[in-house]
Amino acid sequence: MGSKNIKKSKKIQKKPLKKSKKTALKKKPAKKKIIVKKPAKNRPTLKKQIKNKLPREGVLIGTVTHYFPHVQAAAVKLKAPLSKGDNIKIKGHTTDIKQTVVSLQIDRVDIKTAKKGDLIGLRVNSRVRQQDKIYKI
């Protein structure tokens, strides 16, 4: 009988959501520009600087394979020809010797010149070690 007490429901209008301040203030970072400096004409380039710092030993002619302390001689595997009277430099971790070739031998026989690929005996002024490099200067 009495349905008069039923209230009519009002439609509630929903307000649109506002963006939060945090998201509104965020900006995308600007792209960084890469600046490439060109070397000045009078200033040497990096390659030239590195090249100038490399030691100037000379021409590599061989490596020490063994040292005989009782006769102060070294067994040397040659990568280039060598003869008596040539000035050489022996360079290693603890070795740095400059000398003139006085004595060359192959199988205990004195020789004047040795060619590439020979295993020779070389008289040295002081101790050398295996893997020391020999340069012609």
How would you explain this protein's 3D organization?
The protein has two helices and ten strands. With 137 residues, it is mostly beta strands. It has a domain of 81 residues: Elongation Factor Tu (Ef-tu), domain 3 (Beta Barrel), CATH 2.40.30.10. Strands 5-4-10-1-2-9-6-7 form an eight-stranded antiparallel beta sheet, with no helix packed on it. It has a two-stranded antiparallel ribbon with strand order 3-8. The longest helix has 8 residues. The termini are far apart.
Please summarize what this structure is.
This protein is mainly beta and 137 residues long. It has helices at residues 21-25, 46-53; strands at 59-68, 73-78, 82-83, 87-91, 96-100, 104-106, 109-110, 113-114, 119-123, 133-136.
List the helices and strands and how they pair.
Layout: H1 21-25, H2 46-53, E1 59-68, E2 73-78, E3 82-83, E4 87-91, E5 96-100, E6 104-106, E7 109-110, E8 113-114, E9 119-123, E10 133-136
Antiparallel strand pairs: 1-2, 1-10, 2-9, 3-8, 4-5, 4-10, 6-7, 6-9
